[in-house]
Amino acid sequence: MTAPTQRRVGPDHGSADDSGAAAPTPHPSGWRHDIRSLGLFGRSWAVGIIVFSAARALVAWPTLGRYGVDPWTFLAIDLLTAPPYGIGQAVTVKILRDRTRAPRDALGWAAVVVASFLAPYVYIFLASGSMPGYATAGVLVWMALFGALAALRIRSQVRSATTSA
Prior knowledge:
The protein is mainly alpha-helical.
């Protein structure tokens, strides 16, 4: 004879509605589980971000020194923030696509994406001291363009799962 099962209800385990429907089952939690659960596409995306970051630093190299920015430091920051940025994007999409997980589960990963995205640009502004207006505008346009592209990519990936489900 088996013992009756207890359904957990609460903020960590979902809640029952008036119909008595079962609450969502809790997921293994933790950042290690989230990273390990990425498939080949998610891991490939993270590697692609690292390659893109290196290419971006090499293209910007000649201009950085002109405004007092150490290209080596920029490259180091860019490459060190690329893995958390790429992994954070992939995990954020994975969580938001999972109908059994609360969207708030993605907030920590989304914060990692934002912080990793901003770090190289913050370094540029801090290291340069004061750039001419056109250079500042150029960096801000670059940030807005690539920030918007990242947000659109995440939104598109999340929506593609919800429309095909």
